């Protein structure tokens, strides 16, 4: 749903800034897009490890619109505010689920810039919409069309979901790294997993509420 969502934003007057692969997909679909390197003035580097970690990105996200000092900082440094952050994190769980994935490949699928932008936007939810679930794309477009734009409750709901999303992501990383052994000068993923790991980190979603009198087990 990325192309349809981006197209809907452009139709509503938004400007899209994106990183490499996503920018190419949008451009191929005819959606106007600005490469993030044009915003930061720095190329994506280190095989994509560094692309959004820049004051022109995080300053634009974290600036409080009602804070005079923040507005002055934006103007002084030539930073354009960013009003929405849309991120799909690197597929760490899918990569970890493949037994053939090496430790080195596993490490490369730990997203750094994505969670940083999500957390920044969620912290500044009163001014910035943060979208981490493609299922929310239609609702976001609908909220933008509402009188006065997205209400506070809608913004806060997206922020709570965003923090839960990054918490679950970090939980998956922590659990997977507990199944890695250091052998000499290298780290190796273990084929045999302990029934009970040394540290159990659990991230679950509520399925339903029990009825009165139901066995809690």
* Main beta-sheet annotation: 2 strands, parallel
Please report which band the strand proportion falls in: under 5%, 5-15%, 15-25%, 25-35%, 35-45% or over 45%: 5-15%
Mean of all residue-level pLDDT scores: 89
- Radius of gyration of CA atoms, rounded to a whole number: 20 Å
Q: How many runs of DSSP E, i.e. beta strands?
A: 6
Low-confidence stretches: none
Q: Give the class from helix and strand content and strand pairing.
A: mainly alpha
Helix content: 40-55%
Written description of the protein model:
The protein has 217 residues and is mainly α. The protein is built from ten helices and six strands, in the order αβαβαααβαααβααββ. The strands form three sheets. A two-stranded parallel ribbon has the order 1-2. β5 and β6 form a beta hairpin. α4 (55-62) packs parallel to α8 and α8 packs antiparallel against α10. The longest helix has 26 residues, at 152-177. It is globular and about 55 Å long. The two termini are 39 Å apart. The mean pLDDT is 89.
